[in-house]
Amino acid sequence: MEGTLSKEYTRDSRKNALLIVNPKSGNTRAMSVIAPVVEALSNAGYETRAFTTTCRGDATRIAAEYGAECELLVLSGGDGTMNEVIRGIMQVEKEKRPVLGYIPTGSTNDFGTALGLPKRIDLLIDTALNGVPSEIDVGCFNGRHYAYLASFGAFTDISYSTPQEAKNALGFLAYLGSGMNSIANIRPNHTSVIINGEMITGDYAFASVSNTPSVVGVINYTKRGSVDLNDGLFEVMLIDYPDTPMELGWIARGLSTSDFNNEYMHRFTCSEVRFILDEPVNWILDGELVEAGHEVFIENIHSAIRIMLPRPETKRGLMQFQRRDITRR
Hints:
The protein is α+β, with helices and mostly antiparallel strands. It has 2 domains: about 1-130, 3-Layer(aba) Sandwich (Rossmann fold), CATH 3.40.50; about 145-300, Sandwich (Tumour Suppressor Smad4), CATH 2.60.200. The chain is built from 10 helices and 17 strands. It has helices at about 35-45, 60-65, 80-90, 110-115, 120-130, 160, 165-170, 170-185, 245-255, 325-329; strands at about 15-20, 45-50, 70-75, 100-105, 130-140, 145, 150-155, 190-195, 200-210, 215, 220, 235-240, 265-270, 270-275, 280-285, 290, 295-310. Helix 7 (about 165-170) crosses helix 8. The longest helix has 13 residues, at about 170-185.
């Protein structure tokens, strides 16, 4: 292959890239990007080492082992693959961490949406290689890193359990309907939450600690302001367990209007938060089930990674998701 290199790129001048592909993502859709990504990387002057994952944890291992040896790490998969890659990259010294280029090919891709990434594969590849390297925060859940969302309770699996046909036909209403159903099928969890130096206690149907403009398709923060993915702060949402249909109605109204100023919904921003639960619950980290004990500590790792985001001329508002931008799309 060395004899085929153009005059512009020699072995000494070429940069190093790492490609990680989850072949099962999106019903094997991720496999179709390998050839065009490798070609684009080669044309851009990269010498590429490519891997396909074979089991859970592979992406973490590969990113941790080879991440320090490359300038750019491109991954193709869903939110779970991104979660694994971030966990691996966070094992690399910060000054040696590569820039991430994300090509979402999963069935949900909430994180790609949060980043404002385009939908078309050709535009995703272009952004992964030629976008703006931008720092973003990363979460740490009892020592385990995650990309954008830790949650437990009623809404945790909505994005993954709501049928795609219902999402396409009803959009937000499909998520909201699933959410209201899920509240009726869980038990309240008595929890103490230490946040910003204060302790609050309640019976909660849902809790989330996120770094994203929208949570599980139901909680939309952008309608009431903006969310900065690199401000060192989380958005925390606690929703009380409703004891009556009227209370459930108030929660549904708050979610549908993004007006969280009612006595059943509690929104905070913080850099760290501790949960002390009477009974352990399963948490969801970026769509992946994680078992936790009676106590959970979550902290924000500020400016932890760099990721390629769309250039200003192709996508307005790289880090700020303003309501005016949403309505004009």
